[in-house]
């Protein structure tokens, strides 16, 4: 499944010519909404054949970008689940559930290219996290994905 997810990301980015998850969502006809969601980071839902990514408006811009990429992953990989219930994310870094792990892989690959990491190979995970504005767990996941391809 990992190879499928990575191929899906690369094909999508090539087709849309963007690494911006907001632009990708717009180009795919997905409505991106911002709401006060309390502790919920965001969710993906499908209503009347319209697709929605709803993001907590209180998150920082970097967090909103990560949530958007994560929910975009749900759209590409798990749309069938959203027909019955919204895919809600209290913790976007949750790796215990398979759909969440897959959406995190999608988001990681969407936001960080191999060359992004290789061009900054002199930095620690903490420095890369700060530099790219993503959680350290995304950097660690990206490194794991890169090692799988070696």
Automatic annotation (TrEMBL):
Signal peptide, first to last residue: none
Chain ranges passing through the membrane: none
Name the UniProt record assigns to this protein: ImmA/IrrE family metallo-endopeptidase
Domain IrrE N-terminal-like as annotated: residue spans: 26-139
Gene3D superfamilies given in the database record: 1.10.10.2910
UniProt cross-references to InterPro entries, sorted A to Z: IrrE_HExxH (IPR010359), Rad_response_metalloprotease (IPR052345)
């Amino acid at each position: 499944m990992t190879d499928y997810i990575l191929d899906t990301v690369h094909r999508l980015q090539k087709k849309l010519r963007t690494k911006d998850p907001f632009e990708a969502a717009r180009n795919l006809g997905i409505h991106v909404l911002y709401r006060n969601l309390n502790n919920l980071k965001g969710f993906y839902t499908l209503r009347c054949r319209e697709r929605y990514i709803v993001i907590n408006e209180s998150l920082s811009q970097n967090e909103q970008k990560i949530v958007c990429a994560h929910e975009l992953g749900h759209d590409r990989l798990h749309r069938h689940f959203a027909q019955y219930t919204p895919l809600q994310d209290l913790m976007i870094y949750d790796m215990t559930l398979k759909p969440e792990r897959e959406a995190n892989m999608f988001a990681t690959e969407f936001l960080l290219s191999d060359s992004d990491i290789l061009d900054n190979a002199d930095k620690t995970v903490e420095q890369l996290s700060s530099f790219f504005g993503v959680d350290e767990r995304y950097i660690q996941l990206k490194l794991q994905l890169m090692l799988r391809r070696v």
